[in-house]
């Protein structure tokens, strides 16, 4: 990402929060055949170190050469266009506000049992919010057979590069006006802007 020191997110807890709120991730691998990208949900693991787990549908693990090299995992949080009409007169350059994290690490392949447990946690995590949510345990034999079509992985994040570009370069009045315009169409981004500007 562009080197913008005043937008840096350096707190791992904030990166964890971003991943939890936006678990749909893009995995990018520099393979012998060139760059390969795939998209899968991720879970943040408990513990002091930043670590995520996920799964790939076969044969993506072969295409990505999983475990052979570092991969990039992109977490895209809330984002939106910011019109210059929301600024003070004469300030004509619009922008795009966003919260984004790039995570780096070498994937570790999970055993079949670890993969099934991870898939169960992943499913339970998302099903808990659904009316009449389901669980893999309702048909363990059948879901274990389906799980064989996937490969589980863990990435212990060795480094991350994260940005919260939220109009920190604007005055409090202008930032408040931007928040007001975003409130109805992108309330999550408006909330992130409020968080970023509270400490000013």
UniProtKB/TrEMBL annotation:
Gene3D superfamilies assigned: Electron Transport, Fmn-binding Protein, Chain A (2.30.110.10)
Pfam families (UniProt xref): FMN_bind_2
Highest rank taxon of the organism: Bacteria
Disordered as annotated region, ranges: 127-147
Transmembrane feature ranges: none
The protein's name: Transcriptional regulator
Phylogenetic placement of the source organism: Bacteria, Bacillati, Actinomycetota, Actinomycetes, Propionibacteriales
């Amino acid at each position: 990402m562009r080197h913008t020191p005043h937008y840096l997110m350096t707190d791992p807890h904030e990166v964890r929060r971003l991943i939890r709120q936006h678990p749909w991730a893009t995995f990018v691998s520099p393979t012998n055949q060139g760059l390969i990208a795939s998209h899968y949900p991720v879970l943040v693991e408990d513990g002091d170190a930043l670590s995520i787990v996920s799964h790939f549908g076969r044969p993506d693990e072969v295409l990505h050469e999983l475990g052979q090299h570092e991969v990039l995992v992109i977490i895209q949080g809330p984002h939106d266009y910011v019109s210059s009409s929301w600024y003070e007169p004469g300030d004509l350059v619009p922008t795009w506000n966003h919260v984004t994290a790039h995570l780096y690490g070498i994937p570790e392949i999970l055993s079949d049992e670890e993969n099934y447990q991870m898939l169960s946690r992943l499913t339970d995590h998302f099903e808990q919010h659904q009316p009449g949510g389901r669980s893999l345990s309702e048909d363990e034999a059948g879901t274990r057979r389906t799980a064989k079509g996937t490969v589980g992985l863990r990435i212990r994040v060795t480094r991350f590069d994260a940005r919260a570009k939220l109009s920190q370069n604007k005055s409090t009045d202008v930032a408040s006006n931007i928040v007001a315009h975003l409130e109805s169409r992108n309330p999550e981004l408006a909330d992130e802007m409020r968080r970023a500007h509270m400490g000013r």
